[in-house]
Design goal:
The complex is a heterodimer of chains A (374) and B (549). With 374 residues, chain A is α+β, with helices and mostly antiparallel strands. Chain A is 66% helix and 6% strand. In chain B, the strands form 5 sheets. In chain B, strands 13, 16, 19, 20, 21, 22 and 23 form a 7-stranded mixed β-sheet that branches. A 6-stranded mixed β-sheet of chain B has the order 6-7-8-3-9-10, with helices on both faces. Chain B has a domain of 77 residues. The chains are: A alpha+beta (374), B alpha/beta (549).
Chain lengths: 374, 549
């Protein structure tokens, strides 16, 4: 393209630094917000007002901020659950199923201790909560292991397996919590029994302790992929299974391991939403909503290019916008689904902007040197 | 050209105008020997390297102009620029005397340039003719396959291509697929044809046919640029002129009539080249590898290796000569642990390792240099440091309690990069950005720094240029002197004969014979590679004697 004496053309990028990727992503977010403002304008709403409401509710409102943070923890765990297999070149589409499995397992611990009975038995949180956490991780890990085993042993496509397991666990939850199910709420409201207050996850400044779990995992993953032997093996397998095999890496263990780890993290996400968020403490009737939300873990993982630290701001943004979008929809009397639409536009723009991860715009002046941008 | 200038830009307009001229056939009117394409001062920089440094290149109608150079000399970059895949940082391109600027290969194609890449770019489920008209502007919305077929048939006859145009591409041989690509370019109206290493995947008879077709095309005033890395005899046989590139610069542009193979090689490498390495005698030690009656299946499940037995001692090179697909690849993979043995035993240093894992074999001192450098031997998205780690991540020296010591691995990488002359901007460069020869140096360096007691080298010099080949061969001889046992698999008979202490021609999964290196003759080994059983030998076959112990 030519504008005056300037010429603009595309060129292939050979390298991409983390900072360049961050700048491109930021531009993409701005672009998406500009794009979405047309929807607000169509609804006769000043986009600036709408965005101010969205962001102030999500990040500066005493009611909105805790919601955002809880959702952020959930998304970050889901993102980590996606990233671990992703670094091995495998796609975990099964965070939904794994988080249900984690939630069911955590609640099963209570059942085993008679927690469904009223009044709740006196249980020591010091033993109960770690047990619930371990159970949640194990539940997710077992579900993940199925996909990992089939991939490693028989090279069955992991996407298909994890997707199908999602459906299976979805209906398993339905069976467990609805009429007659072992986890049924005594009131029969189509949701699970509530946790006794002694099993509530401890709060630190009104934030569930799971935030430390999620952030700790991010650091652990970063360290694992940067420094450890197992991280190296996973990365090698992810780039080229044939080359990894040649280097003596066990091509059965790696898929199994990454899916066990990914599943365990997704199981913790299930624990977080159904057993640690204040005001929930049960497998709610709209459990499917959180299952769908888990898919944003894939998007966050892809946008952050498998870098767990980069996933923090991305998960925070997605968490905040989903909360703020829903709020604005109600406050400004807009139609249903503003939050979904906003996330959708953001997602598509971010993916489209990944084009600039591979290409750059080169601006050159006729007859003179060249200046590069992005 | 009309006076109206569209607002969106002047250069686009010029190119479009020229496009119209070309469609009328500007290059058609050109006479034999006139310049059709000229590149002046082409410069292309990539981070850390200047791939093309002020290259001048000229092409005349009716000539076959070979471009020669080592891996990484800048041939591919130059051709990609001439084909519009990349834009040069500096320099100008003239076609038929007019300056042009390609924004994409489409511009180049419209101006009459066609390129046949080294890797095939065809739709394998479609027929040959469907592939040829794919993307052709004349194909229109409703395909007139019949007319197209007649036109392409005419091209086939004129240039001596014999292919069934109705056959699906997956049914064709490599040579036929290449012919389809050439026809596609010609049918698109190419007058300048760029062929990237056209003979690299062809069998000798296919090569002969291709060369005949190339000459027929050149007589038709087409200008052809084949570029070839290392097959000097082919350059001498077909080209009229040859441009030699070295380190991104033009080292020479010569009439083929007044050069020899040796002088070309020297221009390419920049120093004197020894074509044949003398076999060095090394005091041989105890047997390291003993193979008994080994068989294995190939990927399709057929028995590809059928009961071979041999042994290799310390300080010996055991050469397996054969045309690819005769079981030598499966043999190498079984020995490296990458493939299961169907029957038989493998004994390494007195221990039965038939069922040992790949990792165990690395640790006990078996080194494998795979023939698939890009797919198996290296990881393109990994840096050189991480690639080096492929053979060291399991060593306690480089990895303590599960934590990798990247500082030490980096140190090792820097060492081997300088010792083996790997040309790379830094140890953090991705392996993908290395040329074939440099990549092979890196793999060789990495495997040899493990000081293997048994080295399995599968096609170690395939596709390498003269300089890199010489380097690899010298390294093998050095390893031999260091008392390693070496299994060398090669399709290059000269290489096998000049390096090996034992020569085993392989045919359909069986050794035809095992001949001592100094007694092996080119003719007899060549015949055995083609499946001819040897006459009863006048010498005993001593190489199986260890099997009794």
């Amino acid at each position: 393209m030519r504008i005056g004496s300037y010429q603009l053309r595309l060129e292939k990028r050979l390298t991409l630094t983390g900072w360049q990727a961050a700048i491109i992503s930021t531009l993409a977010i701005i672009f998406a917000l500009v794009l979405f403002s047309f929807i607000f304008i169509l609804a006769d709403i000043n986009p600036l007002v709408a965005y101010r409401e969205t962001f102030s509710y999500a990040f500066a409102n005493p009611r909105g901020l805790p919601l955002t943070i809880n959702r952020f923890i959930f998304l970050l765990l889901c993102t980590s659950a996606f990233i671990i297999p992703f670094r091995a070149g495998l796609w975990n589409i099964g965070m939904t199923g794994q988080l249900y499995a984690g939630a069911l397992s955590a609640f099963a611990v209570l059942l085993a201790f008679g927690g469904k009975m009223l009044p709740p038995p006196d249980l020591s949180p010091i033993t109960l909560i770690p047990l619930m956490l371990i159970a949640a991780a194990l539940g997710g890990a077992v579900l993940g292991a199925m996909a990992g085993f089939l991939k490693g042993k028989f090279n069955v496509n992991e996407i298909v397996v994890t997707m199908m397991l999602n459906s299976i666990t979805f209906w398993l939850v339905a069976y467990m919590i609805k009429e007659g199910g072992p986890f049924m709420n005594p009131g029969g409201r189509g949701e699970s029994f509530e946790l006794p207050s002694s099993a509530y996850a401890p709060l630190i400044m009104d934030i569930p302790f799971t935030i430390f779990l999620a952030l700790g995992l991010v650091m652990l993953l970063y360290y694992m992929f940067a420094k450890t032997k197992i991280g190296y093996q996973i990365k090698a397998y992810g780039h080229s299974p044939a080359a990894a095999r040649y280097a003596g890496i066990n091509t059965f263990m790696i898929p199994l391991l990454v899916f066990i780890l990914g599943g365990a993290v997704a199981g913790l996400a299930g624990y977080h939403y159904f057993a640690a968020v204040p005001g929930v403490y049960k497998i709610a009737r709209n459990y499917g909503y959180f299952g769908d939300l888990a898919f944003y873990g894939i998007i966050c993982g892809l946008i952050s290019l498998g870098n767990s630290f980069a996933a923090i701001p991305v998960a925070l943004l997605f968490g905040g916008l989903s909360i703020g979008g829903r709020f604005v929809q109600g406050k400004l009397n807009m139609g249903f689904g503003v939050d979904y639409a906003l996330l959708g536009v953001l997602m598509i723009t971010l993916v489209a902007f990944q084009f600039f991860y591979r290409y750059k715009l080169v601006l050159s002046v006729e007859g003179k040197g060249q200046r590069r941008r992005d | 050209m009309r006076a109206r200038l569209p607002k969106e830009g002047a250069s686009a307009c010029i190119v479009n105008a020229r496009k119209r001229d070309m469609e009328k056939g500007l290059l058609e009117g050109i006479k034999h020997g006139e310049t059709v394409l000229e590149a002046r001062g082409i410069t292309k920089r990539f981070p850390g390297v200047v791939a093309n440094d002020h290259i001048d290149f000229e092409l005349r109608a009716g000539e076959i102009h070979a471009v020669l150079g080592e891996n990484g000399a800048g041939k591919t970059t130059l051709m990609n620029i001439l084909f519009g895949l990349w834009q040069p940082d500096e320099g100008e391109i003239y076609i038929g005397g007019k300056r042009v600027a390609f924004r994409s290969p489409l511009d180049a194609i419209d101006l009459g340039i066609g390129m046949v890449h080294q890797t095939r770019k065809l739709v394998s489920a479609h027929t040959a003719i469907e592939n040829i008209i794919l993307g052709h502007p004349k194909a229109g919305r409703i395909l007139n396959l019949k007319r197209a077929e007649e036109e392409v048939k005419e091209l086939c006859e004129r240039y001596g291509f014999k292919i069934d145009l109705r056959a699906k591409v997956w049914q064709l041989s490599e040579g036929e697929k290449q012919a389809v690509e050439i026809l596609k370019a010609l049918y698109r109206g190419a007058r300048i044809l760029i062929l990237d290493e056209p003979t690299s995947v062809l069998t000798p008879p296919e090569t002969k046919k291709l060369l005949a077709s190339i000459e027929a095309m050149a007589r038709d005033k087409l200008a052809i640029i084949p570029f070839i890395t290392h097959k000097l005899p082919i350059v001498l046989a077909i080209s009229d002129r040859v441009t030699v590139l070295r380190h991104g610069k033009v080292a020479a542009c010569l009439e083929t009539g007044c050069v020899t193979e040796k002088s070309l090689a020297e221009k390419m490498v920049g120093r004197e080249v020894i074509f044949r390495i003398e076999r060095t005698k090394v005091e041989k030690g105890k047997p390291i590898l003993q193979v008994e009656n080994l068989s294995a299946r190939n990927d399709k499940g057929f028995l590809a290796l059928n009961g071979v037995s041999f042994s290799i001692c310390e300080g010996e090179i055991f050469g397996i000569a054969g045309i690819s697909g005769n079981g030598q690849h499966e043999l190498a993979e079984v020995l490296a642990g990458l493939r299961k043995a169907e029957g038989g035993r493998v004994i390494f240093d007195g221990k039965d390792i038939t069922h040992s894992s790949i990792l165990e074999r690395w640790q006990m001192g078996i080194g494998y240099i795979p023939c698939e450098r890009v797919e198996v031997g290296s990881i393109g998205d990994f840096s050189l440091v991480e690639n080096t780690a492929m053979n060291f991540y399991f060593d306690d020296h480089f990895c303590r309690r599960g934590i990798m010591d990247y500082r030490k691995i980096r140190g090792l990488t820097e060492e081997i990069v300088s010792e083996y002359g790997v040309v790379a901007p830094s140890p953090d460069t991705k392996a993908r950005n290395l040329s074939g020869g440099n990549l092979q140096r890196l793999i060789l360096a990495r495997v040899l720094s493990r000081k293997p007691r048994l080295l399995i080298a599968n096609l170690p010099t395939q596709g390498l240029d003269v300089g890199a080949t010489e380097f690899v061969q010298n390294k093998l001889v050095e390893e031999k002197k260091a008392k390693a046992a070496i299994l060398l698999i090669s399709e290059d008979l000269e290489e096998i004969l000049s390096l090996s202490d034992w020569v085993a021609p392989i045919y359909e999964g069986e050794f035809m014979d095992i001949v001592p290196g100094e007694k092996a003759k080119r003719e007899t080994v060549g015949a055995m590679m083609a499946g001819l059983r040897p006459t009863p030998t006048e010498y005993p076959i001593p190489n199986t004697q260890y099997l009794d112990t």
